[in-house]
Design goal:
Structural class: mainly alpha
Shape: globular
Strand content: under 5%
Number of domains: 1
Oligomer: single chain
């Protein structure tokens, strides 16, 4: 009898252990497959000469944008797309190249972020499952429209305005007092909308999804970790869609953002409970507003 119970408990432990490992194995396998495909299809850009020729002052700019954006996103649970897109648009990068670059880079940075948050125990698996499929659907639709239907030059001022709105949401959530915990209804609708706006605007998953959940009084640690984990699937889906319908351009941007973001991801996951959120949220919101106003001033 005792041996049977012991064998059963070992089997359950092994099953749980396998499920836990899948949270790391799946992102790693997808990222390795993606890297292999990219290198095979774009081997000239990935050659040593191609890499060296692209390593210049602009590359360093994109690298530091990636570091900063990932530190913001990993610690606040929002802001990677909004921060990096605002910087890229202000730097003069066209919307389609900017959004494609951000989302292809996010396929790697969110994978690193998801693994890091899992390692530090910041994930609510049920919340991730509820956000996953609706978020992916929204992002695929948004990425398809931007790469194959919508004119990037026409939408550029609207994206800048959208970034200002996202920044205001971030600041408003930072200044909110006495948040009462409420049950979050229609998670699927929230995730679909967040995924769609993230793909079209180059950012928005975090400010829309994370800020809504935090505004409902959810635990910041698990909300940030879970939304970041679900963002891996959302970014992967939109990134693949951009590749299929729009192709890939701007490798300097993509590689700079990837290297900066991947290096900053573990530090951001570690800092999620170490820093004061409100001052940083306000500072990030103000920065995004300034960058978006700069982009608008250039267009107008």
């Amino acid at each position: 009898m005792g041996k049977g119970l012991k064998a059963g408990s070992v089997e359950i432990k092994n099953e749980v252990s396998l499920k836990e490992r899948l949270w790391v194995i799946i992102p790693v396998v997808l990222l390795v497959g993606l890297i292999t495909t990219l290198v095979y299809n774009h081997h000239a850009e990935f050659s040593w000469n191609g890499f060296i020729s692209g390593f210049n002052q602009e590359f360093l700019v994109f690298f530091f944008i990636g570091v900063f954006a990932q530190l913001v996103d990993g610690t606040l649970g929002m802001g990677y797309g909004a921060t990096s897109t605002s910087f890229l648009l202000a730097y003069g990068v066209p919307p389609v190249i900017s959004s494609t670059g951000v989302h292809v880079a996010e396929m790697f940075t969110t994978g690193a972020s998801a693994i890091s948050h899992h390692k530090f125990g910041n994930i609510n698996k049920k919340l991730v499952r509820n956000l996953l499929i609706p978020g992916v659907l929204g992002s695929v639709i948004g990425a398809y429209l931007l790469s194959d239907v919508i004119n990037g030059d026409v939408i550029k001022p609207f994206i800048a305005v959208y970034m200002i709105v996202l920044a205001c949401i971030i600041i408003k959530k930072a200044l909110a007092k006495n948040i009462v915990k409420k049950k979050t209804k229609k998670l699927g609708v929230l995730a679909t909308f967040g995924g769609f706006m993230d793909a079209v605007g180059g950012g928005g998953w975090g400010p829309i999804v994370t800020s809504t959940l935090l505004g409902r009084g959810r635990n910041p640690r698990y909300t940030i970790g879970s939304v970041n984990a679900a963002e891996f699937a959302v970014s992967f889906a939109s990134g693949i869609t951009f590749m299929l319908f729009g192709g890939i351009a701007g490798w300097q941007i993509i590689i700079g953002l990837i290297l900066g973001g991947v290096m900053a991801a573990p530090l951001a996951a570690f800092l999620v409970n170490k820093i004061k959120r409100k001052p940083m949220m306000i500072a990030v919101g103000i920065l995004i507003i300034i960058l978006s106003l700069k982009t608008l001033s250039k267009l107008l």
